[in-house]
Amino acid sequence: MATSVAPLALIRVLSPIDGSIVGEVPDEGPAGVDAAFDRARAAAPGWASLPVSERSEALKKWRDAILDDPGVIATLVRESGKPRHEAEGVELLYFCEVVRFCCSSAKRALRREVRRPFLMQTKRTLLVKKPLGVVGVIGPWNFPILNNAADAVAPLVAGNAVILKPSEVTPLTSVRLAELWKAAGNPPGVFQVVTGRGEAGARVTELSDGVIFTGSVATGRRVASRCGERLIPCVTELGGKSPFVVLSGADLDRAARAAAWSSFFHSGQACIRTERIIVEEPIADEFERRFVDRVKALRQARASAGLESEHDLGSVTFPRQIEIVASQLQDAIKKGAKLVSGGKAREDLGKSFFEPTVVLGATSGMELTREETFGPLVGVMRVRSEEEALAAANDTHLGLNATVFGPTDKAKRFAERLQTGNAIVNDVLVNYLVVEAPLGGVKASGVGVRHGVEGIRQWTRTESLTVPFAPLAPIGNLIARHLSFPYDMKVLGLIRRATRVLYGRGLKRKLGPLPG
Ligand code: NDP
Hints:
CATH class of the largest domain: Alpha Beta
Bound molecules: NADPH dihydro-nicotinamide-adenine-dinucleotide phosphate
CATH topology of the largest domain: Aldehyde Dehydrogenase, Chain A, domain 1
Structural class: alpha/beta
Distance between the termini: 83 Å
Mean pLDDT: 96
Number of strands: 21
Number of helices: 17
Strand order of the largest sheet: 12-13-14-11-10-16-17
Low-confidence stretches: none
Shape: globular
Radius of gyration: 27 Å
Number of domains: 3
């Protein structure tokens, strides 16, 4: 009798631009994750055994296939609602830069090191970096390339297979990228995408040998706890409440332009975006005037994948963000903030559109100052001094990114006193594109980093392999004979003397008698 397999339920992906169906993906659930891990485990040893140069070639072929594919950007725009400028000019650009960096740095990051010991002079220790096996990437909905497939590049170049679980809200770009991995002729099973909901993500944490998670603090804690129980490495990049500090002496025009971009980039749905603006009182009037003028000039429209549509903001990707924005706005106004720009849903454009919104007179007790907004709303807070600015900037449970505008040396000194994983002086956001430097959060913004050689090495474990140092091998053999059983008090006497010569004040320090 033939057995029938029940078809998988489908997840329908609706465009936030107009509510149309962009596509459907199977809800593969935990069983789909199990099957993907079986394929990955079979493929991983072959991939790990390739020289770094061949793995790099495969990644470059994948990048080229993505750059040549007309569908990737169209899908990304339609499922996320972000302007094409951000889809192509930020996400795709970033992906290419990560591939370039990882391919050109992997050899250095992964090369064997030799350590020459001080005490064990007769030995040399080789540090051999081995891939973990299969790494799980659990991605958020806001950056379908940047915090999803791009996070697979470092583990892949380090010799791991990768399973990516994108958010159910924006999975289609990732699915296309997995197809392009195959179309580029790269080995099957090495990079796979599994579509599903939270249970699929949870299953990834059960089976992976290492995890990188980007998303909310609450889910990040669950993922990290499980990885802790399983004793596997876990990198988490969670929320941000990034301050944008304007100190006296800052170039106010540049600061205002940067504040507008970093507050409303991708309609505010970015973990490193500006979440709070803190400005010194003497320059506040002028800064606020310029900033609000810039925000009022932003062009909001329905995103389109064509090159003809020039605008600055699209919709939000995740409609719940509009509820958060509306609720924080109401709370701020109730507590005395002044609405000076935006403040309304743009139902004329669609259900997922909200105006870029600014309130002045933000204070520390307001929700928009304390909780992550992650949407098109920002508050400006005035402070009386640099010290007050510092206290306000650090007054948060999160610590991902920070921006300081001011005379460069003063701003740099200020930035060094911030409790943050990353900071940038007299510019915004682009520190995310400095892929040479490790980037991660402090406080509840997460643990671990992406980027830098550190971001490649963390997907390996190091075997310390100690071998005889040939020229001193006879001495090594002699020491080995006397250091082990049977113990000999004469040898202990020598060790005691040597310990004082090497670490103490030499033999001038009197040796006491052996106890007993
Ligand atoms: P989540 O943290 O819940 O989701 C992030 C990813 O984790 C998604 O792929 C999700 O899958 C997956 N996931 C959900 N539950 C589990 C689980 N138990 N184990 C493993 N993976 C799981 O974020 P939300 O999408 O719900 O957004 C909530 C808030 O998080 C936003 O309002 C925003 O404030 C913040 N956020 C921060 C981001 C950042 O860049 N730091 C990015 C996105 C959101 P699925 O979507 O299929 O449920």
